From TrEMBL:
<feature type="domain" description="ABC transporter">
    <location>
        <begin position="21"/>
        <end position="251"/>
    </location>
</feature>
<keyword id="KW-0813">Transport</keyword>
<dbReference type="InterPro" id="IPR027417">
    <property type="entry name" value="P-loop_NTPase"/>
</dbReference>
<dbReference type="InterPro" id="IPR003439">
    <property type="entry name" value="ABC_transporter-like_ATP-bd"/>
</dbReference>
<dbReference type="InterPro" id="IPR003593">
    <property type="entry name" value="AAA+_ATPase"/>
</dbReference>
<keyword id="KW-0547">Nucleotide-binding</keyword>
<protein>
    <submittedName>
        <fullName>ABC transporter</fullName>
    </submittedName>
</protein>
<keyword id="KW-0067">ATP-binding</keyword>
<dbReference type="InterPro" id="IPR050166">
    <property type="entry name" value="ABC_transporter_ATP-bind"/>
</dbReference>
<dbReference type="Pfam" id="PF00005">
    <property type="entry name" value="ABC_tran"/>
</dbReference>
<feature type="region of interest" description="Disordered">
    <location>
        <begin position="1"/>
        <end position="20"/>
    </location>
</feature>
<feature type="compositionally biased region" description="Low complexity">
    <location>
        <begin position="1"/>
        <end position="15"/>
    </location>
</feature>
<dbReference type="InterPro" id="IPR017871">
    <property type="entry name" value="ABC_transporter-like_CS"/>
</dbReference>
Amino acid sequence: MSSSETATTAESTTTGHDGAVRLEDVVHRYGRGGETVTAVGPVDLTVPAGEFLVLVGASGCGKSTLLRLIAGFERPTHGAVRVTGAQPRPGGAAGVVFQTPRLFPWRTVGGNVDLALRYAGVDHARWPEHRARLLARVGLEGTEKRRTWEISGGQQQRVAIARALAAEHPLLLLDEPFAALDALTRERLQEDVRRVATQTGRTTVFVTHSAEEAVFLGSRIVVLTKGPGTVALDLPIDLPRGDVDAEELRASREFAALRARVAHAVKTAAAA
Ligand SMILES: Nc1ncnc2c1ncn2[C@@H]1O[C@H](COP(=O)(O)OP(=O)(O)OP(=O)(O)O)[C@@H](O)[C@H]1O
């Protein structure tokens, strides 16, 4: 964890609310002196409230760095990041889901969700109701008394998503959350996340390598160039959202065309 990741000072400099997330001329470099790596930039990007933005690109192009900047775990070397008008700080406006679930093994499934409710400042008397609703939202009804090692990897990742939803942050950030899961579980969780995002209307930024995953989930896809990542393609996705048959959607001609387009853009951007 970097020192900026542990920063806790809240900052409330507001610069307007022209987007849930706003990146202005953002460049981020790691390291100091002679040994620096420019990971991203320059990037200008506005994510309107309610959008489901997917960041796609080859390994090392800076996807996670962009997400960490939006989460407030890093401060940009140059430019500005604003989340609902303010400089982001860890635990501020965003719920974050990582590649691995990072659950507390000494707590039950319900206990892990309760911890998030406590951090969110939810009144203790209302925990059971919130816990049940959150677990139902990710398809984990009836599992609250189970230990985290008694549930599958996919179920653990569902708990992590429920936990990230607990605080009702306006923003949900997911960094390759399904990378370690088998194909079938991954598809099911994609369907869950798509449904949850549609139901809650929450602004979402999702990082993946997969063009297929990007097209299924996103209402907009941004493909990054190879590092330092800049925007190579910014593509609105006009597939039906709401109550759709996931299998039908994945099998549609429009889906195949978009997937091919994004896959091609990722390959071209990685080779440039
Ligand atoms: N803490 C760090 N210190 C130094 N360099 C870093 C650090 N984190 C990332 N980098 C470098 O920054 C660049 C972008 O990394 P980042 O993890 O953001 O890419 P990514 O697109 O998410 O990669 P992947 O898809 O492999 O996870 C890479 O060159 C990486 O080596």
